[in-house]
Amino acid sequence: MAVQTEAVKRGSATPFWYDQRVRGILFQVLVLLALLAFAAFITYNTAQNLQRRGIASGFGFLWNTSGFDISFTLIPYKATDTYGRVLLVGILNTLFVSSIGVVLATVLGFLVGILRLSRNWLIGRLATVYIETLRNIPLLLQIIFWYFAVLAALPGVRQSSLWFGSFSLNQRGFYMPAPVLEPGFSWVLAALVVAIGAAFAIGRWARIRRERTGQPFPTLRVNFALIVLLPTLVALLLGIPWSWEYPELTGFNYRGGTVLVPELLALLLALTLYTSAFIAEIVRSGILAVSRGQTEAAMAMGLRPGQVTRLVILPQALRVIIPPLTSQYLNLTKNSSLAIAIAYPELVAVFAGTTLNQTGQAIETIAITMLVYLTISLTISAFMNWYNRRIALVER
Amino acid sequence: MTATEQERYAPGTHPSLPPPAATTGVIGWMRANLFSSPLNVLLTVLSVGILVYIIPPLIEWAFLDATWLGTTREPCNTAEGADKEGACWTIVNARFAQYMYGFYPADERWRVNLAFLLLFGSIFALLLDGVPYKKWIAVFLFVIYPFVGFALFYGGMFGLEEVETRLWGGLMLTLIIATVGIVTSVPFGILLALGRRSDLPIIRMMCVTFIEFVRAVPLITVLFMSSVMLPLFLPVGVNFDKLMRAVVGFALFAAAYMAEVVRGGLQAIPRGQYEGAKALGLGYWKMMGLIVLPQALRIVIPGMVNTFIGLFKDTSLVLIIGLYDLLGIVQASTHDAQWRGLAKEAYAFAAATYFVFCFAMSRYSMYLERKLHTGHKR
């Protein structure tokens, strides 16, 4: 019996190392072991190195006083605050510059992308030159150029002039009036919220009515009017519940108003222009991807040119545009980290730069910085994936 | 035309009249391409306005009023000692050797020239159509050249003087980082892409984690990690060169991006190719190496070149961790007291250099796309 089974085993089955499943498992176990060994090696070395340099690891430093000032903050911050607050300031500054950059780059990119497809020869060429120039020069060079070569050449504070008594562009940045809110302002905000809510409701109602009866409704115009007019009306009724504070030259500097620091200006300019060139190419290819037959068929059905663009071309082009657009938004957010070269105080500059240098907690600061970016990236791509699924082609 | 003239021709024998003057020649072209509608007229006027506003002052600054000759600042000054209106290109003249070679000893620069001559020579030979012995050129480029290049750049062997990497800089350093990063990223990228599409769950998970993690964080944090944390990871006493650390970080970053490009190609290969290869009894590596990868890599070459362009531009980030690549050394030269206020000229030179490389690569990628695009063309 025993002899027989052995013979059967030997005769029928190939040796186990020729079995693909066994091989797969073995290979994976080996790789996993190698990875673990590597991790152990690194951990051991790191512990040794840290001990030799006398650095205590851990996240306790986040509660220590930072002792340095930050030139541009969105939340109150002073040098006696903690490193944890520095981290928060950095994250907010990164998000601030990225969100403004995304909006500006999208608007500019769509504009240039459409202009590049224009039947006007001259404007098409101009758009091409714009795209090719900005795309082929490193972003870091552009940031440095705007900051050190252009903005540094602006007039000094005392030489600068105040346009319309309210704006001034000089070496210290861009000065503009700041609104001073008065108690009634919350009503204006409430009106805006109500108007936006109503706009959504009208859009929904109009869509359902169109699907039932075929009657179109000028949703866009009505909603636009609603969102603009309602808050304006409320503001006028309350006697405009805010006032403007204008910048004024006192001594060596402007007082009052708000200022966009030159670091922020240079970073925004470079990020917007650079990313808009990529977005323009994406928009162009998205529009070209909609076949000509679609336009012709829509025209043949009697749609007006505006309707052809809005109802036929754009929805189809957006399907092609959205995925690469997402990665451009991610790129812009990640690229905002280059601000470290001109000392705009975003996450990498204040946390992975200054904080690391002061505390020596290399592993902790870099790990936290990377985690923050990971979170931002995953959030943006989750949102864009959700949006993409919503507009994606529903096939039968 | 009067009725009597028309009657001279029998029906159908009237010779073709020339097209109306307004639809042909320069005027016709302008009507069709510049003034076809009120909006187009507006756009044309607007673009002419922009051109007039930008181009003449730019030409005046960069060429007509510019100072070209000399290696000091004096020629750029007026008799009164103030700066002249135009560009002062003498900063580029004075610093040109530094912009190209960094602080590489002047007597040894022929080695750099020779190394790049060999590199670009063999790359061009590979890219051009109709060059014989391509296989041997490829073997030279990928197997022999790394050693030759190292010997030439670093020296310390065959009687060549040793040149430490801290003396390297300028365009030379940019090209070295870009080339090493790109060349090592291709094989690693292929392996990562294969791993990501593998049936083995642990391998797949590891590759996905690596790729997604690296792609989600900015390059500068990866460079910080490799420059600050790598020394901590190594055994006590082992020390890595600063340049080496930057290159390691850069190559890891590049590999993740390359992996996604290659994955696109792997996904584009029809299932039948995989099944056919398996039906022929090929194992995993033979199936990939002989059937799938040759087709997949062919499709993704344009995408790879586009990634190369991005990576080439990204090499400028090493200036943040204190290396003097082209941008780094240009920036250093603008901080020199002697050349104060000439940042525009120096950066314009750097921008033009980067532009030439990137633009050439992008044109090549478009040419490849046209060449490989054998169907579906509208």
Which descriptors would you attach to this protein?
heterodimer; A: 396 residues; mainly alpha; MetI-like fold; 2 domains; 3-stranded antiparallel sheet; two-stranded antiparallel ribbon; 12 helices; 7 strands; globular; B: 378 residues; 68% helix
Tell me about this structure:
The complex is a heterodimer of chains A (396) and B (378). In chain A, 67% of the residues lie in helices and 6% in strands. Chain A is mostly helical and 396 residues long. Chain A has 2 domains: 2-53; 83-177 and 246-391, MetI-like (MetI-like fold), CATH 1.10.3720.10. In chain A, the strands form 3 sheets. Chain A has a 3-stranded antiparallel β-sheet with strand order 1-2-7. In chain A, strands 3-4 form a two-stranded antiparallel sheet. In chain A, strands 5-6 form a two-stranded antiparallel sheet. In chain A, helix 5 (139-150) crosses helix 8 (262-289), helix 8 (262-289) packs across helix 10 (305-335) and helix 10 packs antiparallel against helix 12 (362-391). The longest helix of chain A is centred in the first third of the chain and has 34 residues, at 20-53. Chain A is globular. Chain B is an all-alpha fold. Chain B has a domain at 92-104 and 163-372: MetI-like fold. In chain B, 68% of the residues lie in helices and 0% in strands. Chain B has 14 helices and no strands. In chain B, helix 4 runs antiparallel to helix 13 (326-334) and helix 9 crosses helix 10 (242-268). Chain B is globular and about 100 Å long. The relative contact order of chain B is 0.08. The mean pLDDT of chain B is 83. Chains A and B meet through helix 2, helix 4, helix 5, helix 10 and helix 11 of A and helix 3, helix 8, helix 9, helix 12 and helix 13 of B.
Under the CATH scheme, which architecture of the domain at 92-104 and 163-372 in chain B would be assigned? Orthogonal Bundle
Rg of chain A (C-alpha, Å): 29 Å
Shape of chain B: globular
The rough form of chain A would be described as: globular
- Portion in beta strands of chain B: under 5%
Give the class-level CATH name of the largest domain in chain A.
Answer: Mainly Alpha
Integer average pLDDT of chain A: 83
The SSE string of chain B, one letter per element, is: HHHHHHHHHHHHHH
Helix tally of chain B equals: 14
Element-by-element helix/strand order of chain A: HHHHHEEEHHEEEEHHHHH
- E-strand count of chain B: 0
CATH architecture level-2 label of the largest domain in chain A: Orthogonal Bundle
Proportion in β-strands of chain A: 5-15%
Main β sheet profile of chain B: none
Number of helices of chain A: 12
Low-confidence stretches of chain A are none
Q: State the secondary-structure class of chain B.
A: mainly alpha
